[in-house]
Amino acid sequence: MNTNKLKAGQAIPLFADYQIRLIQQTDLEAIKHMLADPKVCEYLFFAPAPVEVYEGYFNPMIEDISTAIKADVWANNLVFIVLDKNNEFAGMIGLTQVPMLVGNYEIGYQLPHKNWGKGITSHACQRISQLAFETLGAHKITADCYASNKGSYAVLLKSGYAQEGSSKGYYKTEQGLEDRLYFGLGQ
Predict the structure, then answer these.
(1) DSSP secondary structure string, 81-99?
(2) For the packed helices 120-134 and 150-158, what is the interaxial angle rounded to 10 degrees?
(3) How does 167-187 read in b/e, with b if 16+ C-beta sit within 10 Å?
(4) What are the backbone dihedrals phi and psi of residue 2, each rounded to the nearest 5 degrees, phi first?
(5) Which of 57, 58, 87, 153 has its CA 20 to 30 A from that of 33?
(6) What is the CA radius of gyration of the chain?
(7) What would the DSSP string read from start to end of 26-64?
(8) Which run of H or of E encompasses 141?
């Protein structure tokens, strides 16, 4: 994996007709559009939300990543954008350093509904997990998801993560209480 190009903000191949790169300001509209889809939001505790919430969350990360690119360093919170063969937004994956726990990261991902089931997330999760261990010095990466989100936990299992626990009735949804599943991957 060419991490130098990726760290510099350039796209690198992910698999087949897909590439991955760090987030840019121009990606925010596609992210907001994706997060307006009820199918995408079904398993997101933070969505749907007003666009100002997304702007308030992503703009500082975009600025931090832009500053890190200029300084030729990795930002603490990374958001990667997946692009299709037409250079159009196909999803995103985030890798966040856990505050005050050196080497601990959390991973999460969202894709537009039209891109589900294509293997995009599995490839991205595997690639970014590899980056975390080999380049960023991670020793543990964690993730969580709704128990009924079979697609999300299938991605984690395919990527080598193991289920490490759960919280019963963690999420309150329109259908009732939903369990939260915890996954981890260690070096």
Answers:
(1) EEE-TTS-EEEEEEEEEPT
(2) 50
(3) eeebbeeeeeebebbbbbbee
(4) -90, 85
(5) 153
(6) 16
(7) GGHHHHHHHTT-HHHHTT-TT-S--HHHHHHHHHHHHHH
(8) strand 140-146
Cis peptide leading into residue 38 (ω within 30°): no
Cα 52 from Cα 142, distance rounded (Å)? 28
Say how far apart CA 18 and CA 7 lie, in whole Å. 18
Question: What are the sequence ranges of the domains in the chain?
Answer: 3-186
State which amino acid sits at residue 52.
Answer: E
| Distance in angstroms (rounded) separating the CA atoms of residues 155 and 82 | 16
The pLDDT of 55-69, averaged and rounded, is 97
Distance (Å, whole) CA 37 – CA 120 = 18
Contacting residues for 12 by C-beta, under 8 A, at least 6 apart = 1, 2, 5, 6, 19, 20, 21
- The identity of residue 176, as a single letter, is G
Write down the pTM of the prediction.
0.96
Question: CB–CB of 139/129 below 8 Å?
Answer: no
| CATH 3.40.630.30 describes domain 3-186 | yes
The tens digit of pLDDT for each residue in 95-134 reads: 999 999 999 999 999 999 999 999 999 999 999 999 999 9
DSSP 23: -
